[in-house]
Amino acid sequence: MKFKILVLNIAILFGLTGCTTSTALTSVQLNSISKIGVLATHNGKMEVIERGLTIFGSEDHINDISTWKVNHFIEKEIINNLTNKNLTTVPLSISTEELNLVNNFQLRTEYHDFFKKIMVKNNLNTLLVMICGGYAHNVKVGTSGIALIKAKTLVTEGTYLQLNNNLRTYQLSNDKLEILHDNYVGGIQIVENELWSDTKKSISIENLSKLKKPAEELLRKSIAENMELIGY
After folding, report:
1. In the chain, pLDDT over 70 holds for what percent of residues?
2. What is the pTM of this model?
């Protein structure tokens, strides 16, 4: 119970919960979709951060998880959760350079222009995309995509995986781009403290690999919940 309260307090303190309103598609919007592109834009990196009651003494590390093929996993889960099996799906991929570009966007118009070009290139009028969530006010107080967080107080500590993503559908008609929904995809999963014991150092490669399965389980659960909520 104490750790659950700790997680909640840390989440509120550092802005780890999403602020995007979850919405559902109307029947008219759903019926307008017959072919849909599916794209994920995770940058293949995971933050490993320590957070206490103050910023002093906190540690931040960035780890390469490109071998996890997170985007492929996300796209597969999105497609698996489409209840309309008559819907034509087009899994998409973009280059490493384009992934880096997307993950450095600050303005919504930058996303709009980028995804519009992808839709035109692939002859799509609808695109369902998972985007790494941004930081509050462009300040690194939260996390983006997938993160490992060690939350500490004077008396206890806990380690957990945290998601911060947005699941968004774009539709293009008469050269006009519209967002049908923009849903926050988050989640928290407690993991063993011992996986990251020395916060002065980054998590070991061996222990990092142990996080792949729980991270996928958390993504699978969060994607399924949001796909059902949206109405797909």
Report:
1. 83
2. 0.86
